[in-house]
Amino acid sequence: MTTDAEFEAAIAALQDWVGRERIVEDEIGLSSARRIAGMLDIDPASLKQGDELPPHWFTMFFPDIAKQSDIGPDGHPNKGVFLPPIPLPRRMGAGRRVTIDGTLRIGQPAIKRAIVAQVLPKIGRTGRMAILTMRHVIESEGKVVAVDEFDAMYREAPQPGQASPQTPPVAAPTNAAFAEKVLLSSPLVFRYSSVTWNAHRIHYDADYSRQEEGYPATVQNGGLTMQLMLDAALKRAPGRLTGFTARLARPLWVGDIVTLCGAAPADGKMECWAADKDGNLCAKMDLEFAA
């Protein structure tokens, strides 16, 4: 087992990855947009070639498509294929900061500039961790559509038979102006993983999730949690969505019901959160709108 100093040195050796950029192209195809719509219970036939998409849908395009031989045992692309080879085996989304300047249009090609923004080591109560921040710049017709800074947390693997460590529960706020309940069904989570080309096994392989990663069940996809929160909030939007920040605080489990809540919008802003079946805070989001 390496020492903490050796771990920090290994992360420091990855700093030459910071600033690296690659380009992911997407045609923003009609069939892809219709699959996303169907997954979100929107009539797929309502989308036509040339239509503008909802502003936050850019997160469901531009997947990293690895060869099957480049997929690791957890379902993620092997380290070093797309992302820095961080020497920790467990990876989960943690949060994001997004600014939105435009929208994607069906049939209008676009690109994602994927830039390694930061690789940061941490040693905390639950052990060694590393935070990878990716900056995704979405462009179409030479204009920036959105900038998305996404944080992924890498952690040590639990010992055999041990549960994966979690942060202590915190009660969700009780001042909601609205609340929607959504069943995180296996088909919903599977379809989201499919449209985003995410093969991480914790989202669909219960045996792997329990036996290898120490979770009590298959894990809800954090990207889908954010998507559902945005969809609920935008039904009450005071204007055009121009950005949001989000933080995932606690896992949700496939098969559970999540409650999507929000405060009343004020001064072009809205606070939203997600609570699990026990009333614990699982995610928090702050949205900004233009009139």
UniProtKB/TrEMBL annotation:
Signal peptide: none annotated. InterPro entries: HotDog_dom_sf, Mitochondrial_HTD2. Coiled coil: none annotated. GO terms for molecular function: (3R)-hydroxyacyl-[acyl-carrier-protein] dehydratase activity. It comes from the Bacteria. This is Acyl-CoA dehydrogenase. It comes from Neoroseomonas soli.
